[in-house]
Amino acid sequence: MSTALPNTKIMNRHDLTCRLVAKLAHEEAVIGGIGNTNFDLWAAGPRPQNFYMLGSMGLACPIALGVALAQPQRRVFALEGDGSLLMQLGCLTTIASLAPSNLTIIVMDNGIYQITGSQPTPAMRADIVGIAAGCGIASSHWAADEADFERLVDAALDTQGPMLIAAKIDDKPGVGATRRDPAQIRERFMQGLGVRIPI
Known about the structure:
The chain is an alpha/beta fold and 199 residues long. The chain is built from 8 helices and 8 strands, in the order H-E-H-E-H-E-H-H-E-E-E-H-E-H-E-H. The strands form 2 sheets. The chain has a 6-stranded parallel β-sheet with strand order 2-1-3-4-8-7, sandwiched between helices. The protein has a two-stranded antiparallel sheet with strand order 5-6. The longest helix is centred in the C-terminal third of the chain and has 13 residues, at 146-158.
C-alpha cells in the first residue's frame, strides 16, 4: 500500500462531489460512474455537462477519455468507484498512452461494492494510486483530507494531465437518485457539450 494511506482521512463522497462541482466554472464535463457515484453527482446539482452512466460498471473512464480526445479544449473529469475502476484497469494504460492533457480521474474508494450489498472489493488490498502510477499516469495522488482534495482539483484545473485523484470514503449511500432515462441523459449531455442543438 501507498505510504499515504495510513494518514488518509475517511471522507464522504457527496461532500467531495459538491466540492468538485463548486469549482467548475467553465462548462467542464463530468462523467459519473454507475450507482452512488452518479447519485451524488446528480444531488450536487444537475448540469448539462454531466453524464450519468447507467447499468454497466467501469465505463466512466473510457467515456471520459473519448470526450477528452474529442474536445481537447474542455476539462473532463471521470468520477468512478474503486470496484468499477478495477473492472476496467486496462483503461489506465490507454489513458497514459494517449496522455490527454485535459482529463482527470477521481476515484472514490470505500473498498466495497456498495450498491449490490457492500461486498468487499479487491481494492481492500490494493493501492489504486500505485496502480495508476504503474500504468503510466505519473500524476496520481491520494487526497489526505478535504482541503487536500480541493488543492488537487485546483491543480487538475490549472495544469496538464492526465491526472488521478483517489479519496478514501465512508460507506454512506448516495444522496438522491439519478433520473433513469438513458435517452434523456444522452441528449442533455450532447447539448451541454455543444454537439447537439435542442429541437
